[in-house]
Task: inverse folding
């Protein structure tokens, strides 16, 4: 399990594939909740042709709790990985959920350092939270231990501590999957690293809105979402794909926010085709 110190934070990361191959950096979601494992496990099959790197973002997983926790800083951390771990070459950047927001933040600032962009179940502004509230009210029967006040807290900087964050996360889990496994959810929540400090800091920043900047992203972009995504509803993925000049959309029927796991074969096949089709001539 390699580590590297960049921008004053010590990052834990996974790295698989030929070091000389084109690199895919995969960014996990969950502000202070997620870690690299889900994204890495989903995309490591691509290591037969690409180098696949996934790391715990600052203040997440096993990476150091090193402020500042801002969208801009997390995008700068991606650039530090590109320069120091990927030899300064252009990268393929993948981001899921909140990781997609960081990927978009990176793309509008450092787009010239990308070859392609892949986004999964994400949004170009914090306004997706309003739509998620609507969906939550429609589907609250699926998450009988959750409440509207829990979701309000989830989208705020008011989480009391790591324990409260873990309990809210467990209560909301049935909303994330079309085929929900409660035992798997328990194990995920038990073993997941959660950091309320990071969560609160990243939800305190209410400036994220790149909708008018999407037109400036210069690279081919594949936007993937589940048709049943509750927390980043599909209309947000459609908007991204429509406004990025070289954007395209894969909306998977019968899949939710975890589309990369629920429809793994479909998503991987689409990514392989997209990357092969948009590769630069040697």
Result:
């Amino acid at each position: 399990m390699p580590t590297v110190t960049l921008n004053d934070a010590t990052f834990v990361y996974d790295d698989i594939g030929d070091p000389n191959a084109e690199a895919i950096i995969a960014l996990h979601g969950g502000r202070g909740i997620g870690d690299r494992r889900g994204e890495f496990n989903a995309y490591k099959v691509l290591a037969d042709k690409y180098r696949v790197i996934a790391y715990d973002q600052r203040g997440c997983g096993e990476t150091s709790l090193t402020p500042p926790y801002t969208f801009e800083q997390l995008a700068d951390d991606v650039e530090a990985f590109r320069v120091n771990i990927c030899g300064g070459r252009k990268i393929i950047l993948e981001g899921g959920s909140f990781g997609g927001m960081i990927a978009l933040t990176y793309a509008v600032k450092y787009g010239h350092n990308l070859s392609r962009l892949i986004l999964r179940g994400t949004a170009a502004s914090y306004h997706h939270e309003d739509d998620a509230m609507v969906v939550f009210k429609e589907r609250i029967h699926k998450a009988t231990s959750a409440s509207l006040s829990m979701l309000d807290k989830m989208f705020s900087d008011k989480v009391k501590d790591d324990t409260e964050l873990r309990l809210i996360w467990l209560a909301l889990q049935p909303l994330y999957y079309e085929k929900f496994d409660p035992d798997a959810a328990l194990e995920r929540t038990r073993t997941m690293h959660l950091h309320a400090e990071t969560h609160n800091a990243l939800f305190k920043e209410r400036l994220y809105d790149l909708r008018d900047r999407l037109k400036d992203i210069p690279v081919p972009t594949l936007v993937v979402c589940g048709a049943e995504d509750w927390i980043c509803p599909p209309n947000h993925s459609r908007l991204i794909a429509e406004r990025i000049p070289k954007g395209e959309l894969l909306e998977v029927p019968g899949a939710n926010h975890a589309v990369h796991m629920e429809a793994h074969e479909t998503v991987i096949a689409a990514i392989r085709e997209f990357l092969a089709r948009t590769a630069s001539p040697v």
